[in-house]
Each structure stands twice: as structure tokens, then as C-alpha cells.
Design goal:
294 residues; mainly beta; 13-stranded antiparallel beta sheet; 0% helix; 82% strand
């Protein structure tokens, strides 16, 4: 447990870790961490633009910004493992991250020198960000017989990020001169499976026959919009995009270990990759690429 004090704002931190066994052949470990942030920031800036030929000051501006940030985050991970026999094992690994933060800010802009007026006199802004990550992995090592081993690995995950931002700017009379809203949401999902069988070609042999397969898939959905003074920006390109990739592979090979310091591999591998993308803009852009290699 930890507490941090900055300018009278308290930011707590709590972490917990546990390692133990739950059976004669099973062990586990878990870690959980919780964090909080509460910050206040202030900045003052002065900008002066000088003509290098006449050495005259052409523009002088002073700006201020005062902001407050509040954030919370959580991290959790674990591993459970079972010993199934000599050289045999099964494990599960979950993983979780959650983070959210929000910021509010107020600013001023004054101009003491310059022909053109400053673009605004005061500004208000607020933003929020949320990130969530979930991941799960598992692995199995199993002996089929004295000369044959089997290995299986797999996993799946999801990542989501959401961001919102709003900016309002006002002139010296208090009239709104700019309003901008930005929203972005991105979701990534993925999964993969990898399997492999290894067989020693006879007792004491330096050769092993190895075959396996691999499957992997990723997908991304993204929604982004920017509205400036009531008008949607880049409307022709659309606000939603989807991209996905799928990979498949099969292989068989001979692994030769003539000595502890020398290894050689020879075999055959086939791999295929397919990529798709699409958007909802006026152009309705869609792409589908496929490649194969042997």
C-alpha cells in the first residue's frame, strides 16, 4: 500500500501478490494492482515573434492553462499450472488491464502586439480516455509414447480504447468562435492456436520428425468522428473502418542434432495470409488480399 501527496492531492496505490499450491501437482500465482491519480497542473507561456531583418517585434502573445486530471487503473495477471507427469504440463494464464482517466482544462490567450487579433481569448476543454485489455493464454505439453511428444498452445484477447475530447474557444466578448468534438473508439480482437508433434526416429537417434499447424486471426474495428463548428470533417472517408487478417500454416520437417552445438533443419512449409479491409465512406473502399507460399 502506498500513498502519494502532490499539491494536496492524494494518489493511492494498492498491490497484492499470492503464490501457493492448490493440489499435490498444481500451483498458482496471482497479482492485482490498483492505482489512482489526482493531479493539478498549471502552465504560463509567452511567445514573441521578431522580424529578423528589422528586429521589430511583429507579434507577442501570452497564454495560460490550468488543468485537473483524475485517473484510475487496475492490473491483474495470474498463472495456474498442473504437472501431468514426467515432462508433461498444462497451464492457464489470464491477463486484465483497465484504465480510465479524465481531464478538464481552462485557458486564456492575450495578444499585446500584432496586426491580426488572437484566435480566441478564453478556452474550455474536457477529455476522457478508457482502455480495457483482456487476454487469455493456455499451453499443454503431453507425452504420447516414449518417442512422441505433443505440444498445444493457444490464446485469445480483446483490446478496446475509447477517447472523447471537446474544445470550446471564446472571443473577448464571450462569444463562441470554435467548437470541436472528437470521438474515437477502437476494438482489436485476436486468437491463435499452435500445435506441434515431435517424434524421435528411434532410440538414440539424432533425428526428430516434427509436424505442426498454426492458426492466427486478428480483427480491428475503428470508429472516428471529428465535428468542427457543427460540420463533420472528412465525411467522404467515412467514420468506420474494419481490418482483419487471418494466417494459416502447416509444416513438416526433420530436425537433426549431430552434436550439442550443431543443429540442422530441413522440411516443407505452407503458409497462407488473407487480409480484408472496408470503410463506410462515400468511396466505400474495400480491399481483399491473399497470398500463399510453399
Amino acid at each position: 500500500i502506498a500513498l502519494t501527496d502532490e499539491r494536496g492531492k492524494i494518489s493511492p496505490n494498492l498491490s497484492w501478490t499470492q503464490n501457493d499450491s492448490f493440489s499435490p501437482t498444481g500451483t498458482y500465482n496471482f497479482t492485482v494492482s490498483l492505482n489512482g491519480t489526482d493531479q493539478i497542473n498549471a502552465s504560463r507561456n509567452t511567445s514573441i515573434f521578431t522580424n529578423t531583418q528589422t528586429n521589430a517585434i511583429e507579434q507577442a502573445r501570452a497564454s495560460t492553462s490550468d488543468s485537473a486530471n483524475d485517473g484510475k487503473s487496475m492490473f491483474a495477471s495470474g498463472r495456474m499450472q498442473w504437472r501431468l507427469g514426467a515432462g508433461e504440463m498444462f497451464s492457464i494464464q489470464p491477463f486484465l488491464v483497465k484504465n480510465n482517466s479524465s481531464t478538464t482544462a481552462r485557458g486564456t490567450l492575450t495578444q499585446s502586439v500584432g496586426a491580426a487579433p488572437a484566435p480566441y481569448a478564453t478556452s474550455n476543454s474536457n477529455s476522457s480516455n478508457d482502455v480495457n485489455v483482456t487476454r487469455f493464454m493456455t499451453m499443454l505439453n503431453k507425452t504420447i509414447d516414449e518417442q512422441t511428444r505433443f505440444e498445444l498452445r493457444g490464446g485469445a484477447g480483446r483490446f478496446k480504447s475509447s477517447a472523447k475530447n471537446n474544445i470550446d474557444e471564446f472571443n473577448t466578448a464571450g462569444a463562441l468562435v470554435l467548437n470541436q468534438n472528437t470521438n474515437l473508439t477502437a476494438v482489436d480482437t485476436s486468437w491463435n492456436i499452435v500445435g506441434k508433434i515431435t517424434r524421435n526416429l528411434g532410440a538414440g537417434s539424432e533425428h526428430k520428425l516434427v509436424s505442426g499447424l498454426e492458426f492466427e486471426n486478428t480483427n480491428r474495428d475503428e470508429q472516428a468522428t471529428t465535428i468542427l463548428n457543427g460540420a463533420i470533417q472528412l465525411a467522404d472517408f467515412g467514420s468506420a473502418v474494419n481490418v482483419s487478417t487471418r494466417r494459416t500454416a502447416f509444416y513438416i520437417q526433420d530436425e537433426w542434432d549431430p552434436s550439442p552445438k550443431i543443429s540442422a533443419y530441413g522440411g516443407l512449409r505452407w503458409e497462407g495470409i488473407e487480409t480484408r479491409s472496408a470503410s463506410d465512406g462515400a468511396a466505400r473502399l474495400a480491399v481483399n488480399n491473399q497470398s500463399r507460399v510453399l
